[in-house]
Amino acid sequence: MMMPTCQVNGVTLYYEVKGEGKPLVFTHGHSLYHKQWEPQVEYFSQFFKTIVWDARGHGHSTLPKGKVDPDDFSKDLVGLLDHLGIDSAILCGLSFGGHVSIQTAFKYPERVEGLILIGAPYTNRFNFYERFTTPISKFSLRLMSLKMVAKMTADMLSKINPDNHKLITDSFGLMTRDNFLRHWSGNLRMDSRGQLHKVKCPTLILYGDNDVMVGRQQQSLAEQIPNSTLKVISNAHHVTNLDNIHEVNEQMESFLKPFRE
Fold this sequence. Notes:
Layout: E1 5-8, E2 11-18, E3 23-27, H1 38-44, E4 49-53, H2 71-83, E5 89-94, H3 96-107, E6 112-118, H4 128-143, H5 146-157, H6 164-173, H7 177-189, E7 203-208, H8 218-224, E8 228-233, H9 240-243, H10 245-256
Parallel strand pairs: 3-4, 3-5, 5-6, 6-7, 7-8
Antiparallel strand pairs: 1-2, 2-4
C-alpha cells in the first residue's frame, strides 16, 4: 500500500489526513511518531481536518546524513502545510512537538491561528538542573544501546497508562541509533528563550501533574506567551495526551470551539 508522503526541505515526510474543516496539525514528541495522537484524531476529526505527521528521522520519515539543524523542524512543518495547500492551521504538539509548534508560531505567525502545547519545553537550559543534566544525558545516551534507551523511556512513561509501553517501544523500533542520537542532539539545541512574546495567537498550555520532565517550565511559558491559558491535567505524566485522554480532549474541545467552521 502506498503511504502518503511528500518531499519537503530535503526529506521525505510521512503524514495522514482525516476529517474536514479547519486544519488541526498534531506533532508528536521526540522518539514517538504519528500514532501517538490516535485518540485525539478519532475524536477531533469529527469537527476538523486533522493532520498527523512523522518528524524527520521518526516513524516513516527520513533523515539526511550530517548534523541536524533545529531550524529545519519548523521549516518541515511549514513545508507540509504548503504541500497540503493550507494557508494557516491550529497546531498541537507534545514535548518536542510542542516546541516545534512554538517556533513555527513565532517564525511563521501568518501560518498559525491557534496553539495547543502539551508538556512543551521552550529551552533545554531553563535552570541549573537542566544546564547540568542535559550534557550528562547526551553523553550517557551515547553509551547505551537504542533498545536499552527504548526500554528505560517506555518503563518511565507507561506508569500511568501501561498501553504507552507498546507505542513507545514500537516508535523507537522505527528509528536507527544514529538517527536517534543526531536528532536528540538537534532537539537539545532548539531554544526559544527571548522569543515567546512573539507568539500572538490564542494558546492553550497543558501539562500533567506528574510531569517531572518539563513541569517546571510551564508557568514561565504561560507568563511569556501573551494570549495563553495554563491548565494542569490530573493523573498524567509526560505523555499527557494518552495518560488522561478524557481530560486533555475536554480542555482541547473547550479551546477549539471558537475555531470550528
